[in-house]
Write a structure and sequence with these properties.
617 residues; alpha+beta; 40% helix; 2 domains; Rossmann fold; 4-stranded antiparallel β-sheet; globular
Length: 617
């Protein structure tokens, strides 16, 4: 019987397969695939003990010959990929992935929500080890699937997936979610202070290391230290900790693994079958926490030094405090995972085709934008429902630069940020490319005239917002405040059927919310990309007076921005005056569907155009 309360597809119940019916070699290979784990075994002598705090963070790090040899060997194998077409390589490794069909099978048989590779990876950890629950990132859906007490909600990203459980998520007082901040850790402790005990902590964070992939382990070492210190600080006795790491060759990783072995009864390094065998990620699974009592003195020192460069200065422990029995087991584990990874890469290299000269790689990544440049995308409106009763303002630390956005491809943003960092100041003065489709300002105005019939111009200017090319990634609080002021003034003065031309880039939640407000106000919104040095422009046609209902709310948001700028909302919460801004005023669950598709197309066209100019400069 079909229930209108749910639209989820009914799970296909498959009969269990008799494993013994398969070829013994196949069975052995599958079991090996799902059993890539190495567990540390503590000596009965009790020599693995927490060092004295006086020895911590005092001595320089030392290289370990065998581990550095493994690192060099792995990097040499990875360097063989430098001439491969990235897209071809990804397609090839997907086709050779031994566990590649697991995700599709789970999706059809288990009815798991948003069944991704990350979801399956975390669920495999949950099923392999005796964890009570699991809730981090894309892994938050696993325990709700296995123990469906409440409505399952997948983790971020994208943000709208956590909207229904938002009160139970903590992003810090500045909404940055930066765990490498001592203040954030102490605030997190206060957030969970009413809980009887924390049973499981998981940490799967990382940084973008594409610029220096050979040193990925060293670059993320401080983050891993902070994540581990947070887990030891928050966990209750008997709790579990899951930490995503990569290679384990550096002295920093050696010290961290030793500390975890001293604090937990069982520590294993696990490579899930659903994690691609050719990458470096492994999961350190720690079970049965001994509690904070023994580690408290050392933990206090770690928290005092809680900072983004925690591991970049002195070593956590000197080499002489690491027992030989531990070093031997760690070297064996590293050799095992090194052999698995290099073997997989070597096997994939045997069959891959398609090479690309290194000099062409970056240039080719900027191709394909011309079609979007000449064409346009249209957002039809106005929206019938605005749900203004659900709108709320989130304030946080000022965004210095946009590194990630739900409204643009992350790879494109990374390329743009890298190109801007290396660009000369005069790159915006580069003349238009003769091979690029030309969209001049005159043609845009002619289109407005043809669609409106009799018309006249009115230039609306906020106190500071001028009709100049919009910043590539509008992040500064003054830019956004002035933009919103310009929109509010325009909506105040417009009559039914009027049109609005607005220079805009929409990489942040606030600027995306601004487009959402325009979507509520106009019959159609079209993206136009005038030829350089013009900015991307939104052509909004067919103003509807029903938009007046949102003008007071937008005015309140603008006023809130002004108060933040001059310090009228001063509290004892850091960051100080001038370093806070409005991050969101429309819930993320409303910024989806055709709006997201429109913004994605718009931002892709903007970024591709700018990359093209930067390459010419």
């Amino acid at each position: 019987r079909f229930s209108k309360l749910t639209s989820r597809r009914k799970a296909v119940r498959q009969q269990p397969t008799d494993v013994e019916a398969f070829d013994p070699e196949v069975v052995a290979e599958v079991r090996e695939l799902f059993n890539k784990v190495r567990t540390y075994v503590k000596p009965a002598t009790g020599e693995w003990c927490i060092p004295y705090p006086s020895e911590a963070l005092r001595h320089p790090a030392q290289d370990h010959i065998l581990l550095q040899t493994l690192k060099t060997s792995l990097n040499e194998v990875k360097n063989r990929l430098s001439d491969k077409d990235l897209e071809v390589w990804h397609q090839h490794t997907n086709s050779t992935n031994h566990a590649g069909k697991v995700i599709g099978t789970v999706r059809t048989s288990a009815n798991a929500e948003i069944c991704t590779q990350a979801w399956c990876t975390f669920y495999e950890i949950l099923g392999t080890f005796n964890l009570l629950t699991h809730a981090t990132g894309t892994g938050v859906g696993q325990p709700t699937h296995s123990t469906p007490i409440t409505r399952p909600t997948e983790g971020a990203p994208p943000p709208h997936l956590i909207a229904n459980t938002l009160p139970w998520w903590f992003f810090g007082s500045d909404n940055t979610s930066v765990i490498i901040s001592q203040r954030q850790l102490l605030e997190l402790q206060g957030f969970v202070g009413n809980m009887l005990s924390i049973d499981v902590v998981t940490a799967d964070g990382s940084f973008d290391c594409q610029g220096n992939p050979d040193e990925q382990e060293a670059l993320v070492a401080s983050l891993h230290y902070c994540e581990a210190a947070a887990a030891l600080f928050l966990l209750g006795p008997g709790g579990s900790f899951v930490l995503k790491m990569f290679t384990l060759y550096e002295h920093s990783s050696l010290c961290l693994l030793y500390l975890l072995n001293c604090c937990f009864r069982s520590v294993s390094v696990f490579k899930p079958a659903t994690s691609k065998a050719g990458n470096s990620e492994v999961y350190v699974v720690c079970l049965h926490y001994d509690g904070r009592k023994a580690v408290r003195p050392l933990l206090s020192k770690l928290i005092r030094h809680f900072w983004p460069d925690l591991s970049a200065r002195e070593a956590l422990f000197p080499s002489q405090l690491l027992p030989q029995s531990f070093l031997a087991q760690h070297e064996q584990a590293c050799s095992y995972f090194h052999a698995l990874q290099t073997g997989t890469i070597g096997e994939n290299l045997k069959y891959v085709t398609g090479r690309m000269p290194l000099g062409q790689k970056r240039e080719l990544q900027a191709l394909g934008w011309k079609e979007a440049q000449g064409a346009c995308c249209v957002l039809a409106g106005p929206l019938a429902e605005c749900h203004m009763d659900t709108w709320f303002v989130i304030v946080g630390a000022t965004l210095p630069v946009v590194r990630n956005s739900p409204f643009c491809d992350g790879g494109l943003l990374n390329h743009l940020n890298e190109a801007l960092e290396q660009a000369c100041p005069a790159w915006t003065l580069v003349p238009p490319c003769s091979s690029c489709p030309m969209v001049c300002t005159t043609s845009i105005l002619s289109e407005v005239a043809s669609r409106l019939g009799g018309w006249r111009w009115s230039f609306v200017r906020s106190p500071r917002y001028h009709l100049r090319p919009a910043p590539l990634c509008m992040t500064g609080s003054h830019n956004i405040r002035d933009l919103l002021g310009c929109v509010v003034l325009s909506l105040h003065r417009m009559g039914p059927g009027d049109a609005l031309l607005l220079p805009l880039s929409t990489f942040t939640c606030v600027t995306a919310a601004t487009v959402h407000c325009l979507h509520l106000s106009f019959r159609s919104i079209t993206l136009k990309c005038p030829s350089p040095p013009g900015a991307a422009v939104l052509l909004c046609v067919g103003f509807c007076r029903a938009a007046a209902r949102q003008i007071p709310h937008l005015g309140d948001v603008q006023e809130r921005m002004s108060c933040l700028a001059i310090g009228e909302e001063d509290t004892d919460i850091l960051p100080p005056v001038g370093q806070r801004q409005v991050l969101q005023f429309v819930p993320m669950e409303l910024l989806k569907g055709e709006l997201t598709e429109f913004l994605w197309t718009m931002n892709s066209a903007i970024v591709h155009q700018r990359l093209h100019l930067l390459m010419k400069a």
